[in-house]
């Protein structure tokens, strides 16, 4: 009886540690998904966003700072450790009339003619790398790649 318990205790402890790690990774993914959605939602209600040059638009910078720090000016520390605005990618999506599927908006005619997007897409293409820590078990790093596609409501 004692021998059986001694054999099973390490297995039970390993399973408990693994469950805790899965919970941490799940919560981290939820937090990243919420950050990505916050940036997309912030941009979807902004007016005067330059869709011809999203990389240089101050609204995009403010949205990404809001996603990372919770403030539009970036004055607070990151909500998630090692999360930076460089990890995010923002694009405007337009619905294709033929297929009805969203796709990248055309930038033809920019900067004089700007097509109003139907959606704002915020992604983390490289992902946020997580290193699971389970004793005596070596696991590969896991890239978490959340995205958010939010209908554009601005003008």
Estimated helix fraction? 25-40%
Unreliable runs, pLDDT <50, ≥5 residues?
A: none
- Class based on secondary structure composition and strand pairing: alpha+beta
The number of helical elements comes to 2
The largest beta-sheet arranges its strands as: 2-1-3-6
Q: How far do the termini sit from each other? A: 72 Å
Please indicate the percent range of residues in DSSP E strands (runs of 2 or more).
15-25%
Number of domains: 1
Average pLDDT score: 88
- Tell me how many strands there are: 6
What sequence of helices (H) and strands (E) makes up the elements? HHEEEEEE
Overall shape: it is: elongated
The radius of gyration computed from the alpha-carbon positions, rounded to a whole number of angstroms, is 21 Å
Largest sheet: 4 strands, antiparallel
Verbal overview:
This protein has helices spanning 2-44, 58-69, and strands at residues 89-95, 102-104, 119-123, 128-130, 142-144, 147-151. With 155 residues, it is an alpha+beta fold. The protein has one domain. α1 (2-44) packs antiparallel against α2. The longest helix is centred in the first third of the chain and has 43 residues, at 2-44. The radius of gyration is 21 Å and the shape is elongated.
């Amino acid at each position: 009886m004692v021998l059986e318990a001694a054999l099973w205790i390490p297995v039970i402890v390993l399973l408990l540690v693994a469950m805790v790690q899965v919970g941490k990774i799940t919560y981290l993914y939820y937090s990243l998904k919420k950050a990505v959605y916050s940036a997309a939602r912030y941009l979807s209600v902004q007016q005067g966003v330059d869709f011809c040059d999203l990389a240089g638009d101050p609204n995009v910078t403010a949205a990404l700072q809001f996603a990372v720090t919770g403030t539009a000016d970036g004055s607070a520390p990151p909500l998630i450790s090692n999360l930076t605005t460089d990890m995010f990618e923002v694009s405007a999506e337009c619905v294709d009339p033929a297929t009805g599927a969203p796709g990248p908006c055309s930038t033809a005619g920019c900067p004089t003619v700007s097509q109003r997007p139907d959606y704002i897409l915020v992604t983390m293409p490289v992902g946020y790398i997580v290193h699971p820590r389970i004793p005596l078990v070596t696991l590969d790093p896991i890239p978490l790649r959340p995205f958010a596609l939010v209908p554009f409501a601005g003008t």
